[in-house]
Design goal:
This protein is of the alpha+beta class. The chain folds into two domains: about 150 residues, 2-Layer Sandwich (Nucleotidyltransferase, domain 5), CATH 3.30.420; about 170 residues, Nucleotidyltransferase, domain 5 (2-Layer Sandwich), CATH 3.30.420. About 40% of the residues lie in helices and about 25% in strands. The chain is built from twelve helices and 18 strands. The strands form five sheets. The protein has a five-stranded mixed β-sheet, sandwiched between helices. It has a five-stranded mixed β-sheet with strand order 13-12-11-17-18, sandwiched between helices. Strand 1 and strand 2 form a beta hairpin. The longest helix is centred in the last third of the chain and has 24 residues. The two termini are about 35 Å apart. It binds adenosine-5'-triphosphate (ATP) and magnesium ion (MG). Magnesium ion (MG) binds next to loops.
């Protein structure tokens, strides 16, 4: 009798949780509450014994500022797991943080992963999630989750194209009848653009800036098209020759030039994916256009640029950086509807 009550209580308390395991950010969605956590996928470890010192926001603040005995790592790189143990610790930390005492009742967890991850990588994510404390772990293709989160009717026989621009990768998919039909991806994303900006500023202005500064330049004055009205931003760093503190004014033209090659690569992901898509599906895409999701979709002018290069209507999903996590939440709440699409 007591056992029966306990079992029922456990089932009643089993929460559903969704995780978007991104290269730059990890988001967590909790049944009944929505998106409850967004923290950088960054972990600080001690160099000597790999002990974890800080995770998330706290660790990101340490980037580029740590003493020799601390290493700040991004366990996910280019959209895949680069450091398995640290990823697991990160999942565990975020899950515990959002669930509080309800942690005792192990949750069912769905994790959104890039559509191109290998079977081995998929198994690694499931294992990491279960080891981190999940009762059951499901996987969903991030682009499919993004489409669901962008409220695109994925089950229809009409094809939709979704282009996700994350920190580590750009993924283009054509979705039809509830599944990913065509998929293309390159490991080029927001992080690549940040690196481009760091290199350009060093070469052109003789100024060494950090990763966070490069990202701020991209978000505040960067654009994927030439702007009619240039923007400017003053940044500080270190002189590349003297090593002393230095300040320079960077323009949106600088950022455009810095990113140009990578932006062209992003465009080519879409072009190459369409090139291998069947004519009927391409006709649907031409008809409806494509939808941009992911944080990188917010880059000024990226929609305009894609429209010019590809020749179809391009729209940016509202709250583009939340599409994957919202869609993963919808999928785990409606497991029966989406079960076929889950891994
Ligand atoms: N306004 C903006 N302009 C340009 N880029 C932006 C803007 N806002 C966010 N980003 C970029 O979006 C990226 C983060 O997007 P997102 O959170 O979708 O990535 P992720 O899920 O962590 O990465 P991935 O899916 O590749 O693993 C970062 O590179 C960030 O710099
Ligand atoms: Mg992502």
């Amino acid at each position: 009798m007591l056992y029966q009550i306990r079992v029922e209580l456990c089932v009643a308390m089993t929460k559903k949780v969704a995780i978007d395991l991104g290269t730059s950010n990890c988001l967590v969605w909790l049944e009944g509450s929505g998106v409850v956590l967004k923290e950088p996928s960054v972990v600080a470890v001690s160099v000597e014994d790999r002990r974890i010192l800080a995770i998330g926001d706290e660790a990101k603040d340490m980037l580029g500022k740590t003493p020799e005995y601390i290493e700040v790592i991004k366990p996910l790189q280019d959209g895949v797991i680069a450091d398995y143990e640290v990823t697991e610790a990160m999942i565990r930390y975020f899950l515990r943080k959002v669930m509080g005492r309800a942690w005792f009742f192990r949750p069912d967890v769905i994790v959104a992963v890039p559509a191109g991850v290998t079977q081995v990588e998929k198994r690694a994510v499931v294992e990491a999630t279960v080891t981190a404390g999940a009762r059951k772990a499901y996987l969903i293709d991030a682009p499919l989750a993004a489409a669901i989160g962008a409220k695109i009717p994925v089950a229809e026989s009409f094809a939709n194209m979704i282009v996700g621009v994350g920190a580590g990768a750009t993924e283009a998919v054509v979705i039809c009848l509830g599944g990913v039909v065509v998929y293309g991806s390159k490991r080029i994303g927001g992080d690549t653009l940040d690196n481009d900006i760091e290199n350009y500023v060093r070469k052109k202005h003789g100024l060494i800036i950090g990763q966070n500064t490069a990202e701020a330049l991209k978000e505040k004055i960067g654009a994927a098209i030439r702007l009619k009205r240039e923007k400017e931003m003053e940044v500080s760093g270190r002189d590349s020759i003297s090593g002393l503190p230095k300040t320079a004014t960077i323009t949106s033209g600088d950022i455009y030039e810095a990113m140009e090659e990578s932006i062209m690569m992003m465009v080519s992901v879409v072009r190459e994916t369409l090139a291998v898509t069947g004519p009927e599906l391409v006709a649907d895409v031409a008809d409806k256009g494509l939808v941009l999701t992911g944080g990188g979709a917010k880059l000024d002018g990226l929609d305009e640029r894609l429209k010019r290069e590809i020749g179809v209507v391009v729209s940016v999903a509202p709250e583009s950086e939340l599409c994957v996590i919202k869609g993963a939440g919808v999928a785990i709440e409606n497991l029966e509807v989406y079960r076929r699409a889950l891994k």
